[in-house]
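Support reply, case 0932

Customer input (verbatim):
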Amino acid sequence: MLTAMVIVFLVGYLMIALEHPLKINKAGTALLIGTVLWVMYTYAAPFFIPRASAEEFSLFLESFPSLGSLTFKEQCTRFVVEHQVLDSIGEIAETLIFLIGAMITVELIDAHGGFMFITNHITTKKKKKLLVLIAVITFFMSAVLDNLTTSIVMIMLIRKLLGNYKERWVFGSIIIIAANSGGAWSPIGDVTTIMLWVRGNISTSSTIPHLILPSIVSALIPVLIAMRFLHGNVTPPNAFSQMEADNELLKKLKDKEKLSILIIGVLCLLFVPVFKTVTHLPPFMGILMGVGILWFYTEMLYARKPIDEDLKLRLSKVVHRIDGATLLFFLGILLAVDALRCSGVLSDFAFWLDDTVGNVYAVNLIIGALSSIVDNVPLVAGAIGMYPVATDAMVAAATDPAYLANFMQDGVFWQFLAYCAGVGGSMLIIGSAAGVVVMGLERINFIWYLKNISLLALAGYLSGAVVYILQNLIF
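Our regenerated output:
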């Protein structure tokens, strides 16, 4: 059954990659493989649970003594349905709700002309200069915001600047790379660095100075290569601009009112990591609070202005503009990966890497490459589960203290894991949350990205890795 599950995942992955030739929407494929894998896992639960979740299963049975009268197969089914599925849906819901909140916030800003204040200040029409500017903004924005939010904001910006969809594909691809690289050096920039930071594997004071240069290099190399193929000026979105010019609502809103919505919206997005740090509540709570604040503000704004009700873009109207297919694609992919995680496939592979490779740099480089195929969250979670944070006492008592020192807080393994898991996802468009959301918003073809961008991302990934390794050897 384990082999069958892996085959189903790989076939589904291939169908997603061949979405355009097959003319089957990737969201439908993702939902299908996600649900099928869970059915297969539930059916074979008596085989999987003892080898992958034995301790968790024992605690579940202790919590519900009445299950002792059931057969082992029935106990396993109850464990999957009442514990593992609910845990999986809970974690997935956090991601989806956060994504919905971020998309609503960005759409609301866009609907009220907020991004015009930024695009109006971007005067360059030269493709090369604009690419560098977009990459720099994305890189540093993703260190403060998360990759998802940054990607959504930047895609909205380039839609205002670029009319040619192929040009937007190139710029969107660089946004993916810059967002992933920018999130890797900040403890709050990527979900994997957040995991490592919250669990005490890395600290802010050590991670930023060690990873910022490799992260810059990993974004810089693809940008420099891409610039060699860009010539002339961008094609402005004339039709889109005319649509905005004809928007009666934007004509009736004052510039300061549009600007106020932009400022409040951006502050709400920036507020999310602060909210998490202060309250310890999950980020989706912070983004929902931000949506509530924006909703309240726009309602107050409309109450004061004599605008026809049909023209008012209340949040209840704007919410229909978000891309539901992207959300369903996320849901299906995360369900599929969670089924594989529960079956023990990912953790088994992590243990195999440790036994076979045994070098912290090589192991992390492989994990980074894998993160472009499957979600990097379970890969990092598997690594965290495999290797406890080493203490001074553990290092002193070890037979190979130099090797174990790599697993202390801020050790080479954890810092390089943050880099590789974050940046490695750029090599395939569905290898990161940023890639998935940009793929959904701009309809970027998987094969096109593979042919035109993957090698650029690989060059950046390996270049940044070399810089990190040299840093450790020299300093």
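We compared this against your earlier run and they match. Two observations from our side: The CA atoms of residues 383 and 457 lie 23 Å apart. The chain has 27 helices and no strands. Please reopen the case if you see a mismatch on your end.
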